[in-house]
Predict the structure.
Amino acid sequence: MSLSQFLSQIFATLAALLIAPLLLGWVNQVRAWLANRSGPGIFMPYRLLHKLFNKESVVADTASPLFRFVPYLIFGCLLLASAIIPTLSTDLPLARAADAIALVGLFALARVFIALAAMDIGTAFGTLGARREMLIGFLAEPALLTVLFSSSLIANSTALKTIVQTVSQREFTIYPSLVFAAMAFVLIFLAENARVPVDNPATHLELTMIHEALILEYSGRHLAILEWAAALKLFAYSTIGIALFLPWGITDGRSPVQMLIALAFLIFKLAILGGVLALVETFSAKLRIFRVPEFLATAFLLGVIGMLTNILLGT
Amino acid sequence: MSSISIQLINLFAAFLLLLAFAMLVQRRIINLVHMYALQGLTVVAATSVVAYVTNQEHLYYTAAITLVLKVFFIPWILHRLIKRLNVRWEIETLINIPSTMLVGIVVVVFAFNLALPVSKLSSSVSPGTLGIALACFLLSFMMMITRSKAIPQVISFLSMENALVFAATSATYGMPMVVELGIALDVLVGVFILGLFMFQISEQFESLDISHLESLKEE
Amino acid sequence: MLSGPPINWVLLVIGAWLAIGFLGIVALRIFGIVAKIFFPLGGLAGFVLAIISAKALTSGVVESRVLPIGLPQLQFHLRMDQLSSFFLLILGVTTVGISLFSAGYFRKGAGTAPGLLCLEFHFFLASMALVLIADDAYSFMLAWESMALSSYFLVTANHRIPKIRAAGFLYLCIAHIGAIAILLSFGILQANTGDYTFANMRLQEISPFWASAAFLFAIFGFGAKAGILPLHIWLPEAHPAAPSPVSALMSGVMIKMAVYGFLRVAFDLLHIQIWWWGVLLLALGIATALFGVIFATVQTDMKRLLAYSSIENIGLLFAAMGLALLFRSYGMNELSALALTASLYHVGAHALFKSLLFLTTGSVLHATGERNLGKLGGLIRFMPWVTGLALIGILASSGLPPFSGFVSEWLLLQSFLFTPGLPQSFLNMLVPVAAASIALVAALAGYAMVKFFGVVFLGQPREEKLREAHDAGTLEKLGMLWLALATVVLGLAPNFLLRFIDPVTQILVGKGLASSSRANGWWLITPTSLERASYSPIYFLLGVALASALVFVVVRIFYHGRLRRSPAWSGGHAWQNARMQDTAEGYGQPIRQIFESFFDLERHLPRPEESEPEYRVVVNDKFWKGLYLPIARITEFISAQVGRLQQGRISIYLLYSFLTLLVTLLMVPGVRR
């Protein structure tokens, strides 16, 4: 690993770390605008994180060490995920450590641990949240895999780097299978990031919440880390979407100029994506929890059809 | 023939299949009508591309007829029907949706495999689309089976016809103009008859649930 | 050290196990000696076996022996090739952990005498080793049957409980039906030459029809042992009934013997492979895996949950072997090697983590006396060691990186993604569907494992007596630690095991993965090339650990580490108790609802006027009612008809003998003429 490679990796990771809360703030801001409110501004997540970090952590007296260890682990998982997805450059030394399948494994690892932590205290809400989270996970995970497979079949590789290079740097081709994959991905994206049709990030109503139920017992810095991790997850999923379906602008090199241009592209694309997400959220109503498996099964099966179409129509 | 147009046709084919699946799992009648219109629009686009690529003028007419009839007129009629009959609410399918989708995938695999040897023989613009058209056709048929209300059944019947038109244009450069006109007319008349029929049912049974028709059978 | 031909050493280990077993009989009731000396000695023999087979694998020596025991003209032909060595390695490594654990596990007084258990246990081990080196049908069947019998006696160690006797009977019954199928398969394979050695079978070129028949018998016979649908029915009964170390041995190792036997027949003895064999196996495997994992998620008994999870893993193994067969039949040997590697890797991974998990249930059972998930909970506070080790087990079992289960899953999915090169378009389309199902199975496995771990070890104790639970003893801990360590090594250094798998795939399909996989360094596995796919568990772990540590330190530096303990908040609800946590049933409820058609549900809902409302739901296997009960009924009917012949008068019986004699005489060729 050369120094410039190392530096570009650090740069990409730092960019992910810093942009993630902004993306969340941007989505919330657009949602506020769409609801005719003035909104808290896109820096709100930062202020929130700062506030939470300053507060002391209140931990239930029945909590085991696992409970306190999990936020850091989850943050680590999601930071690694954002580091191996080609956000700015495909030339990432860490990307070799994990391909698309391992990336899904990384999300799964984070999910299993947050579910375990939620069950640790032994309250009714925690276990309920854990069950719901695993329910979403067991459908969303294979669905995400099928989406990634659709792209893998095109690129003949599961390495994210090769996938991005295939789609963005050869001559322009329309891949019909990606229509299905993209559709499935949108559904997974909404479910995995606890967005509206599946979960409502703004609600604390016991009957409907999923993500909030999981982290109900966390406070102070632990909560801050988990919130940041959630923002990172949103960022990671957005960049997966960009890498698979809109990879133009991701650079191949690692010089500072190339990286900065790529960063500009990324921010532009994220801004649009965040706006669309807010629009989708504003227009849809929350599903009943029993409809969620249906929603995700649809995503899963769309992914499968994507792979089938890929084989039928070729490229 | 440029490769980009082939890709475009493939893309529209994929859209059609996506829409067929979306219709299969859609519960709201009003959304079904929207999707039907969208399907019509996709067929129009695909037909226009084929027309452009193969330089066949009559395909443009086909596209135009499809546009007027299936994107505007029939959806409009359906909208009015829905309003008059007041059936905007969600409808439950007979089989639950994930199972429907699973069967749907089996159908797609079946259709793709059935079409592959045929499309290898064909010299058309984009041979793979025949499989997709067949899959759309079968999926629409399936949709008709899984619905218990009359309007979704009519819509699935109409979308079956869409799939046929798509198969005809993309796989064999379209049918002769006379046949096309005949089909278009048939569809139109079909919609009118079915609409009248639905009024009759709803007056007779105060519901559009076709399970009421079961009472008509001989005891 | 340990020089000389490996096969001699293997025979020595088998001899040692038998000797330990018989010594157990001698010291029938002297608990201290049996537990603290004999079992660790058996473990030591396992360790020797592991080292020997590892050496044999790397040196590539293939040796045969003919032992002059058995019937005249039917000596024991023994042979130790790479395939045998690999499975011997797995057997050895797993045995070390389980034997150490058993030394601390078996207690005085319960059920069978310790000496007898010792005999059965070591006889079981010896017969498994013998299965692996048998080189003719006769010795193979002998070893196979003694394996079934010794494990039957181990399953029924607590034979005073009727349910356990019933489970044992079911197990024995299906094991025997399977054995008959295996015998028939061998019968076809020897192609009327009358020579039942494997060497002879390899030479025979039988027609595709008979080859398919042999193959189908092999699937049936070995599938019955492995728990392939619909022959899985004994597994969730027998595995939980056995004492935990035995469950570990059965789930971890014994069902792998079926995999071994199947590989032996399908890839080694049969000279051709036909594509639909692969498709059949793939379909069976996926159906089994899905079935197993869905049932695992709704179980309420922790050992049954693990037993169903074993069914799932066996399904994955068979799916991978099916894919390997499919590739092999089209002569795509590299890809076949990849799928086969995935399958063999999973053999190793599953043997270790499933044994580990069964052992942890043993410790929990000892500490609490409970196996019902509804009465457990919160053990992380009282049994930190067992909890930690179980955590490693469930992470590996869920197929999460960087643990061992993920590596095999990863390899399997990789081999699926290579498929579009198959000559038949129909197969090309089935394969993505199969890959998606595998992904679904893996994700559901995570669900089941979170349930297992969360309900048993996390939360609040659901019963008061759990607060007196104690951690496992030293020997038990050591045994589990060994298995956990091996699991972690398999997860972090996949190339380490790939080195041992390579010779096996070399002899079975002529290609191996080790060289291309290690081309970019030992820390990185790349099945083909770096552009295509790579995975590095070490980097992975370091990345996560570094990022986590960094956050921890940074937060401490810039902010603070203040912490306050208080009662759980739980949304502000003041009154909480342990019964308000999700039960095992509750946790499985979404799956029960989504996959309702898979289950045969018995639901009892309370009516509003009941003064003591009772809610109960029992999930049954549909196969039981749909397949086994009808078969049992038909069998009973036929036996009843046959029973009429039994009149109780001696002259009637003599009449039967007389008639039989007449018919036999008629059949003698000379008489009729």
